[in-house]
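Table S4 entry, Fructose transport system permease protein.
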Amino acid sequence: MPSDTPQFEERGGWGQRVINFLHGNPTVIPLLVLVIGLAIFSMIVGKRFFHPFNLSLVLQQVTVIGMLALAQTLIILTAGIDLSVGAIMVLASVVMGQLALTYGWPPELALVAGIAAGGICGALNGLFITLLRLPPFIVTLGTWSIFNAVVQFWSGGQTIRQQEIAATAPILQWTGTAMQVGAARLTLGSILMLGLAVFLWYMLNRTAYGRHIYATGNDAEAARLSGINTRRVLFSVYLLAGGICGVAGWVLIGRIGAVSPLGGASANLDSITAVVIGGTSLFGGRGSILGTLIGALIVGFFRNGLALAGLDVLWQEFTIGCLIIMAVGFDQWLRRIAA
């Protein structure tokens, strides 16, 4: 009998270590899901799935959503959420296209103005949230409608065609330029997304500002009492996220070749999906840029694999929905156990 207690404690100790490891490394589970998914689809689909062209195609498909998901990660780490990222992206692309082609601005200046417009939209979100102390969900739900209305008003619901942009402002399509790497094709937009991810990873993990973001999301009151200006952190995060959405607008033009007011119809939910599946907690303070990239790849590969397997789009969305519920449920379970 006396020997039973130490054995139980040892088992409990190992279990607690595993839980603590998973809680401290939120990218582990998404990485396992990605690896298992790749293995399953390779068996179902065959060699086509791992063909370099197909892999590079998936990367191109998730580039725009991945860019928005990076912005969304910063916001969710502060225990917020932004439902307007897709609308900001489309608005930025419309600003670029309208200024360059309709108003005759130099294309380079129109590009900068579009990215700045994204930053201004993010700053507006940040001001409403920090100064008026309104919930991020309500603020960004409202600005999502406002930004969409501005897009429709300014564009007149009309698409600026690919040929017009190529003739007048080819720099707006620069991110869609493809490079052949063996049998794979990489776009400059994908490389830009990966470069931005490296920069944000460094910022979050190697700078005091990154630690302030995590601290604000984990416990805003405790962070304030420790000397962190949480309002300034929140405002700067929404400003930065808006600027990233502006860059995403540039990447969107390169991806589709045109300026369309309907270009980001499902971008808001897709960005949140990538972040949540990537292991970032909706309650703030826990998550990573690497996890978000893995989450975006999970969404991309699952949709691609199911499509190659011949399944209807309905089942693709069904699978992604199940992954979201499981990811959030697992996060809440980890939080309860770790506490």
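The two ends are 30 Å apart (CA to CA).
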